Amino acid sequence: MENREEHNAKLLGLVAFSRITAYARLARDVSQTTNFADQLALARLGVSFVKAIDDLEEFASKKGFDLTELSQPYVGFFDDMEARTRPRDWWERMVKSYVFVGILSDLETFAGRVLGGEAVEVLGVSAANTHVEMVRSRLKPAISEDPSLGARLSMWGRRVGGEAFAGVKNLITAHPDLQSEEGDLETLLAEISKLHSRRMEDLGLTF
Asked: Which CATH number fits domain 4-203: 1.20.1260.10, 3.30.70.260, 3.90.226.10, 3.40.1790.10?
């Protein structure tokens, strides 16, 4: 059985993977919009994610951990989701990132709850909340003005959410040692589903 330090190291790797994956998602969005205000906002968010990764790497290094090595086992778990959920327009792209970055943030919250202690200083500081606020400010007015857009994006959000949940389930199933005595996989998925549903409702969409 692995010791507490080894378990915490794997959780730090999960956080690093979540942050770099969120950054990559936003970088794709920057390249797909011609609206300068959106490009600038997303670029700034990307910088915030990179800063959060740098802080995490510094923290891990002080513990004698190689963050690159720790995050490597999780690479690829959301590749299928990315391939199966290609947005058709900017609205779908924004919802995809809103859903995916939100769920990645939930994974970080899960890791932070288990880690606790001094790790708190480098957890919960990513740009996920700012991204949520940005998407809400863009999408909510458009959805209010066009009910058909809201209906389409609700269906799209359910599809993206389902694919993201599958990725989370596959990741945790492949790495059962990430779980703690505080809860099993089904409990974690139920919690993430509840948080996702709340975020969708905040946009005026159904899940």
From this structure: 1.20.1260.10
